[in-house]
Design brief:
Blueprint lengths: L5 H6 L20 H10 L2 H5 L2 H15 L3 E3 L6 H6 L3 E4 L3 E4 L5 H5 L8 H17 L5 E7 L1 H10 L7 H9 L1 H25 L3 E6 L8 H21 L5 E5 L9 H5 L3 E3 L6 H7 L5 E6 L3 H4 L1 H14 L5 E5 L9 H13 L1
Parallel strand pairs: 1-4, 4-5, 5-6, 6-7, 7-8, 8-9
Antiparallel strand pairs: 2-3
């Protein structure tokens, strides 16, 4: 049955008449059933660490829409928490973390190989999903890429320009490099354990890659993802890897080879036509409809969906948004997008 899963076929390089489709953050606040389950859990982190409820919210968009892929419900900040950082969420404002900006703060973190027990509920969620998902649905695991995770661990929160991380990189390269290495080591173990638990594909999200300039982009976005990919491929040679260096712009070209990924996800900062010409010749591409169409809907949603499908139709493609769906999206627009992809 695995050989028939459309996402795995696309990741293997097959050009399909209808692209498989899933959506970043497809289990989320735009769905009333998600909001109900989150209320039942009590708070966001409790939801992430409750295997039954996390599996439930992962399943909700599959039941509602029949997506070809289900992405594990978790959060990229679970790895910092497993490493020993304090993590909490402020309602309406997002995550907060204790900061790592000095050697003394770094020294309080636990070794990468000590994270397993803390993250065991996540692996249990993956096991549940591997049993519950429809046979045609691909189970996708994920983690944040080291640079993006580091920006939160250094800044203590999301920042508009990732300024604190850039500052530490300039002012205390030793601590910065040590933190990047610790995150990289932990991410390899975390993603490998997801695969062991049943994930069929894994994705690396480098959401803040675009803020890295010059050699820093290669050194702190591409190279850590390449190291993670190589380690995972060594242990799990048949598991495809999707990499998403968001904001890469023209630097998406050549990313397949540089990272070693089976698929490069592209954001909506580049056109589908450009990505088809410059990225897709090297392998599967995922993307890249603007997520705002899930809010506004209408004829523009239909025409842009058709344009994206057409642009990528000559090579392997997984249809997705250019970034995650937002809480103000209309669930009916998601159905319209899916119908357009599948029915033209």
């Amino acid at each position: 049955m695995t050989a028939q899963k459309t996402i795995l076929r696309a990741l293997a390089g097959e050009t399909l008449p209808t692209p498989p489709i899933w959506m970043m953050r497809q289990a989320g606040r735009y769905l009333p059933e998600y909001r109900a389950t989150r209320a039942q859990a009590g708070d966001f982190l409790s939801l992430c660490y409750n295997p039954e409820l996390a599996a439930e919210v992962t399943m909700q968009p599959i039941r509602r829409y029949g997506f070809d892929g289900a992405i594990l419900f978790a959060d990229i900040l679970l790895v910092p928490q497993a490493l020993g950082a304090d993590v909490w969420f402020v309602t309406g404002e997002g995550p907060r973390l204790s900061t790592i900006t000095t050697q003394a703060e770094f020294d309080k973190l636990v070794p990468a190989d000590a994270i397993h027990d803390h993250l065991s509920p996540i692996y249990e969620t993956v096991k549940l999903l591997s049993q519950e998902l429809p046979s045609e649905t691909t189970l996708i695991g994920f983690a944040g890429a080291p640079w993006t995770v580091a920006t939160y661990m250094i800044g203590g929160r999301g920042t508009p320009d990732q300024g604190p991380a850039h500052a530490l990189k300039s002012e205390n390269r030793a601590v910065f490099d040590a933190l990047m290495e610790r995150i990289t080591d932990a991410t390899i173990l975390y993603m490998s354990a997801q695969i062991d638990a049943g994930a069929e594909v894994v994705k690396l999200f480098d959401s803040w890659a675009g803020s890295l300039q010059g050699d820093d982009f290669a050194n702190y976005s591409i190279k850590p993802m390449q190291r993670i990919t190589a380690a995972l491929k060594k242990k799990h040679p048949n598991v495809p890897i999707i990499a998403f260096p968001r904001g890469a712009g023209a630097r998406y070209k050549g990313a397949h080879a540089a990272i070693g990924a089976d698929c490069i996800a592209v954001d909506d900062g580049v056109s589908a036509e450009w990505a088809a010409e410059n990225v897709q010749p090297d392998g599967c591409v995922q993307g890249n409809l603007k997520s705002t169409h899930m809010v506004t809907g209408g004829d523009a949603l239909v025409s842009e969906t058709r344009r994206t499908v057409d642009a990528f139709s000559k090579g392997p493609h997984i249809f997705n948004l250019g970034h995650g769906i937002t809480p103000d999206a209309n669930p009916e627009n998601v159905q319209l997008m899916i119908d357009t992809v599948r029915n033209g």
